[in-house]
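Q: Two folds, back to back.
A: First:
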Amino acid sequence: MSVVRRFADLDALSRAAADELIDLARAAIEARGAFHVALSGGSTPKRLFQLLARRKEALPWDRVELWWGDERCVPPEHADSNYGMAREHLIQPLGLPDARVHRMQGELDPGASARAYEDELRAALGEPPVLDYAMQGMGPDGHTASLFPESAGLGETRRHVIANAVRSPLVPGGAATRITLTAPAINRARHVRFLVGGADKAAALAAVLEGPRDPRRYPAQLIEAADVAWLVDEAAAAQLGSAR
């Protein structure tokens, strides 16, 4: 059974996530000299980034390596860029050096960018690459990273990073190609944390955690890492059973 931690609201969830991330980062730096974290996009992690940016003295940030779980195929200055959001709320406030920031190049050919990112992961972390921490969100359709329902990338077992063509009402225009870590790459992370907030996620959260296994419909069910936990606010948890 997945570990579920419930919080009153997104702020409380984000504060707990910040505390734990700092603790895990300190442990990784002590053990291996660096902390490799894959950030998520969307609106939910913004508050977490803001809290981390205020705690500059909490970590030796020059030992933290930032990666991404997925990226939209847009330039870094675009309003929809996952990197752009992290740059504004985390990277620039902390003054992190470019050498520690490994962004997916969404402005380039998606296939070429995915292959280049996979090569960069291998060069830094070996084969197969093992991240210390994978930060995951979940959409109201049960997608995570850019692994959307019924998309071809759900069946990928060999690659670590792919260009995934998706069709979804959640995507502007109904269809797009995005760059994303694959489920096996996420599952190899030492720690996986889902941050899920908002009433619009309640039905999907209940289906993912308590419904029948159907990962083509609810891709978040593919994430079964050794240490995975769900940090959810009460609005998102509204349809979970009482045992949660």
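A: Second:
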Amino acid sequence: MKLTPATQPTIYFIGVTTSSSMIMSVFPKWAKFLGLHDAVIKGIDLKLHDDPARYRDVVNFIKHDPLSRGALVTTHKLDLFHAASNLFDEIDFYANLMGETSCLSKRDGKLVCHAKDPISSGLTIDGFLPKSHFNKTKADAFIIGAGGSAIAISWHLMTMLEEQDRPRNLFIADRDPVRLDHIREIHAKAKTTIAVSYHLVKSADENDAIIAKLAAGSLIVNATGLGKDAPGSPITDAALLPEQAIIWELNYRGDLVFLDQAKAQHAARHLQIEDGWIYFIHGWTQVIGEVFDVTIPTEGLVFDEISKIAAHASGIRPQ
């Protein structure tokens, strides 16, 4: 890790293998479209659960380097927050609540820590969820995985939707008891009437069993990373998805087995299927807007053009 002073306004992508990310080809096109003509993106690669001193070095560098404008943080959200939280001049509500950092920005000489996932996931859900869906269907929600994305999505379902239009029941499943304990602690701070249950699962069959309990029209989310970060799916081919269910695969590229399983039942079960493409767009544009202090629309013609630019620059044509 070599940190050299920026020579032009710079946003950093703090991850593990950032050079291979498609944002490296997308950002220059977005910057031109948004009028950020001299802005650049640079990757900072850190090991999983790296030495806290390295996280602090990165934060101190961004904080004190004049043209380093901020960062998007992935993978290291929890570790970076815990290692460097006393270096932040301000911490926003969601970052404090969830104990994580997904965005660093600067305002008036102050380094600000943000957690943007609750906003970007909420924008995505509100964009594809039919109006008054849960109020009309009395359906449930099942989030497979209990990591950062699951925390953000569940918080939106529990607190940000109108009270009468929240899921009847919320099921959370994960293989890691520590993650389940963490999400349970955060949920304890929510004011909600939703019945929430937490399930420590060891196999895809156990997720299938939860799916069998769900009402028609339920929302099922793959928040495990399986299909992108690791091969496979959190459910088996034998899982029978609820009639008229809404299936959300958070990934948009990779060997998306979960998405393929849903597509195989699409016609017979009358499913609505969503991938992670729009979530990716919201995730990055929320951070870019914060870092460069620009307003980026979250819908409409400008947002559609931003999505088209990303699709063209990356070579991806999401279905």
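Q: And?
A: The chain has 13 helices and twelve strands.
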